[in-house]
Structures are given as C-alpha cells and as structure tokens.
Design goal:
The complex is a heterodimer of chains A (about 270) and B (about 425).
Chain A: E1 5-16, E2 23-34, E3 38-42, H1 49-57, E4 64-69, E5 72-73, H2 79-88, E6 89-92, H3 96-99, H4 106-116, H5 124-137, H6 142-145, H7 155-169, E7 173-177, H8 185-202, E8 205-210, H9 213-219, E9 222-227, E10 230-236, H10 237-242, H11 247-254
Parallel strand pairs in A: 3-8, 3-9, 6-7, 7-8
Antiparallel strand pairs in A: 1-2, 1-4, 4-5, 9-10
Helix pairs in contact in A: 4-7, 5-7, 7-8
Chain B: H1 2-8, H2 12-34, E1 52-55, H3 57-60, E2 65-67, H4 73-81, H5 84-97, H6 109-119, H7 131-148, E3 153-158, E4 165-171, E5 175-177, E6 185-188, H8 199-235, H9 237-252, H10 255-266, H11 273-283, H12 286-300, H13 303-310, H14 315-351, H15 364-373, H16 376-379, H17 382-410
Antiparallel strand pairs in B: 1-6, 2-5, 3-4
Helix pairs in contact in B: 2-8, 2-17, 4-7, 8-9, 8-11, 8-12, 8-14, 8-15, 9-12, 10-11, 12-14, 13-14, 14-15, 14-17, 15-17
The chains are: A alpha/beta (about 270), B mainly alpha (about 425).
Chain lengths: ~270, ~425
Amino acid sequence: MAKELCLSGKNVTKVFGFGDKKTVAVNHVDFDFHVGEFVSIVGESGSGKTTLAKMLLGLIHETEGEISFLGKPREIKGRKQKREYWKEIQAIFQDPFSSYNVFHKIDAVLLDCIKMRGGKKLPYEKKVEMMTEACSFVNLKFEELTNKYPFELSGGQMQRLMIARIFLLKPKILLADEPTSMIDACSRATILEMLQNLRNEIGMTIIFITHDIGLAYFISDTVFIMEKGNIVEYGPAEKVILNPEAEYTKRLISDVPKIHEEWDLSTV
Amino acid sequence: MKHILSQVFHSGKFVVGFCIFMSILLLMIFYPIFNPGNPLQIVSIGTFAEPGIYVSVYDAVDSDMNTLKLDEAPAKRLDSVLKSEDRVKMVMWFDAAGIPVDNLSIHDTEALLTLWEENYDATIRPEGMTKADRNYFQRLDGNLKKVIVTHDKVLARQDPSSSELSVIRTIEDTDYVNIKKVANVKRLPLGTDNFGRDVLKELAAAIKTSIFIGLVAGSIATLIGLTFGLLSGFIGGLVDDFIMFITNIFTVIPAFVLLILISYSIGQDQRGPTTVAVVIGLTVWTWTARAVRSQVISLRNRDHVNLSKLSGHNLFLIIFTDILPYIASYVIMALILQISGAILAEAQLSLLGLGPKTTEVPTLGLMMNWSMLYTAHLNGYWWAYFPVILTIALISFSLNLMNTGLDQVFNPTLRD
C-alpha cells in the first residue's frame, strides 16, 4: 500500500460557544490519512465525527490546530482556493432526502459536477454521455432520471445518485458521513460495494464515518475510534477490532448485536 | 405551480379572503369606469348631502307629465311630514295646553289631525315650553297645513324687465314624471362629504391610492427585511452582529413614532403618496428581517446547502437557489402582512393629519381625517366615515385571512 500522506491533522480542535456553554466537539486530535486508504472513523452519537468531517471539508473552521493536505498546510481562505480544494475533496451526506435542493432537477446536480471539472463548454451530447456513464456506474438509468426531481426517487436511488456525482467529480478524497444509516440493509450493501468500486477504479481515498463498528471492520483498512472528541484508538482494522486496547472500543464491540447470542445490554 | 395554486384555493379561509379582496378591487377598478371624472370634484354646494338619488327639479317640471291616480298618495305625503315622533310631540302639546286626549291613539291619524286643527293656536304659550319647542310646533303646523289641503301649484316665470309673473303650467297633486325622462338625475349612493364630493367615487379612488401605498411600502419593507435577513443569517459572524445591531435599534424605537417624526419633518407639501409609502416601508421592515434571519439560520446548515458549497457555487447563487426558494412561501406571507400593515399605518398617519397632501388624491386615511375634522361622527353623517372604516377593516381582514389560509397550506403542522 502506498504510504503517501493525503490528509493529516495536528492538534485539530473545534470549540462551540463560550463560557458556561462551551462545548469541545473535537479535542486536540492528530491523524494521518494515506492515499488510497479506506479509513473509518467510528464513534457514538455526539463523539465529534461529523464536526471533524466538516472541518476536513472546510465547511467550518477549526478553532485550533492545523490540517495538511497532500503534505502541505492547506490554504482555503479565499473562494478560489476553496473551489480548488473542493475539486479534490468531496462528500456524501447522511440523509439523502435533505442533500438535494428540492427545486432543482436531477440533471442540474450532475451538470454542476461536469461544470466543476471544467466541462462547461462541452456539447450537450457529450455531457449526456458523461451523465449516462456516471449513472450506469451506480446502476441507474439516466433516461429514466432526466427531467425528474430528487423527491421522485427512493432513498437508495438518491444515495446512489450522490455516488454518481462523485464519479463525475473524481476527487482525491471522499468523505462519506454515515451514507448508509438512512438506507435499508439491501441498498446498504450495494452502496458499500459502489464505494469500494470507486476506490478501486479511481484510486480514491475514502474517509468513512460510521457508528457501526462491525461495518467498519468489514470495509476499512484503518479504523479511528472517537470518544467525546478524542481519538482513543487507531490502527489497522484487524488490530483495533480483534485486539482492542481502549475500554471504549471494547464497549463498542460488545454493543454490536450478534445473531444466536444473548445481547449484552449491561454496558449500554 | 399549478398544484400549489389548486392547494391554495382549497383553503376555505384563503378563498373567503380572496373573494373579499377581489370585490374591493373590482369596486376600485370598475366604479371609476361607470362614473368617470375627477374624484375630488366638488358636486354639491354645502356639506354632507345624504345618500340617495337626486332628481333635478328644474328639469322635472319641464318634463312630460302623466296623471296617476294613486289612493295611497295623500297618506304618504302626510307621513313624510308627520313622523311618529311628531305624533308623540303633538300629544305632548295637547297635555301642556290642557286639552283632554281621552282614548286618542297616536296611530289614529284622522282623530289626531282633527283635534290639532280644532285646538292648535300659535299664540298659546303653555307653561314650561321653551321658545324652541314653540317654534317646532309652528313649523309642524305649517307643514301639516301644506299637506292636508291640496292646492294646485303654479309654475310661473318672471319677466326680468317688468318683474311680472306669467304662468307656465299648473301642477296637480296627481302629476308624475318618469325619472328616465328627466334630463338630470344624479345617483349618490354614499352621498357627499364635507367638501361636497361624491363619497363613493372618492372611496374608489382612495382604495386605489391606499393599495398603491400598501404595495410600495410592503415591497420596500419586505425587500429590505429580506436582504438584511438573508445576509445576516447566511453570512453570520460580524456581518450578522452589525445587521442585527441596526435591526435592534429600529425595533426598539417604535416604528409609529419614527413614522410621525419623519412625516412631520418632511412637511406637508413634499408628502405625496409615494413619499409616505417609502417612509412607511423604511420603518417597518425590522420583523421581516428578524424572521427571515431565523429561517435562514436553520437552513444554512442543511446538507443541500453544504452540497451546493462543495459544488463551488458562490454566495449569491446559494442564497438565490438554495435558500430563497425554501423561504419563498414564508416571505410571501410576510409581504401580505406588510401590505396590510402599511395600509393601516397610512390610515393612522393621515388620521393624525400627517398623511399625503390633501390636494391631489384621496386616501382612506385622508377621508377619515376630513370627516373627523368636519365632525361627521358627531352629527350622524355616517356615510362620510363608516364606508371608509368598513373598507379599511375589510382590506386588512381579507389580507390577514388570505395569510392564515396560506399558512395552513404551506405549514404542514397546521393542515387539517
């Protein structure tokens, strides 16, 4: 595996509020993500995973610390820099139903991606070809989707369309913030498979955020466990999950319900 | 769009409000077409002519006359002079003059008149009766004499040089004129006001001006409020603090006091309807700004906005495509309330005499101001102010009703 650094953080901290209302969402975390890795960030609700993801995306500013992108400290002060940055890092959000602007047609979402890759002046036929390709990558038919509104699709279809969007954008890093938590189990498998495909075809780094440690074990190379804003344990998936060291990790693992076994609720 | 419209028109409240507002608009549009001319033209000399149909006497006497033998005519003529309060007063006179009135019913016109004719004497001064009362009875007596005995009336023309009268025609009590044959008939459905203007015509013009003021002021207020709310809510940080600082200052100073001060300092001559509308619009935008801001704050962290940012859209594109459509229904409702509020604000200002200048156009507030200055409300000239009040109430009511109806359509938690 290539050990080239693509995204790393030092002392990254995010604090909301002041004084009595002060909440430390992410508390001085260090991390290194390597190119081509499938990284999972695991933690319960409120452990700061999404806040960390938003900082990585540059949607919110970190209170303290430094995030480096491709070995250099990232510069995303201006709009142009942000635009360049977002060409390299993209996201899939948790709730596909609220990820779309309900007033825009599906075509507009995909055309935006082509425009962002600099294909604004391509002839329309070429654009349709690209959109058809992207849709077929996620087992959707563009002919059936064109001129439709997002709310006419099912949740699974919407989330697959999000992946089609990533396929068109071909960023270096994909941040998937619990992309399967609002989806039923069958669609979940296909979506995970598509994420794997994306990595294999484009060589993308995928940062997968989930609360499901079992899922993280199956798909990821590296696992980061977060508890109350701190990274308590990290390392290769086998090591972390099969030989957990931190108390919190052990608890998370014991919370996974197993078939044919009594579910231990004492730790919850 | 079609779907939304059909949904909106299914709301009973909206439809009722819409119908009321439309009928006011129809009055505003069509009455001036049927009754053209300057709404401020003075048609009657003297103030406050009662509502009704005015027939030109000058033309009527020259028109072709028909003879109609109507049995009830004399009784009606008598009734027009002898009202029920007059009958009661007559009995009071009999009592005061010491004339026995055993078993006399005030509804028995014949007995009452016979007794009156036999006994009334203007020279009698019953005790405790004021001069005003005595004059009243003299007038009543004169009127009764005119009606009871029917003389033919003679129409004469005076020769300007010799002052001699020459009879043109004799008018009998059975002569009638077809109102269609009379050249000049003026219908004044709401009479005239203190200046002798046609109130209904003025009202139609006033509705137009007031709705114009409402639209301009409402649009200005909504535009300012929307811009401030969007910027402050979406950008946040220092911009938010600054805009909210200004908004709070405007909120703390009562808008109406500000309105009075600005109107006063502009001066009567400079205040046209547009100026007043702008002044109103500039003072009442604060709550739209606050409401829009809070809506935007709840929207700006939604995933679709984040996705739009990640797609490289700039600030204005995000505001116009990802924020504004989501709050459009809310803004339209705010606009409706602002319009209704501005119409009321204009009425209040004008009532205080700080409205638009009086010489150009009537407004609802000015009409109330005029009728108040000329004490129409104290003298029972209801037609000068009551229709105006009713119109203001109906406009405001219908706009609020439409707003509630829209709220029911757009707010799922309020749906039945």
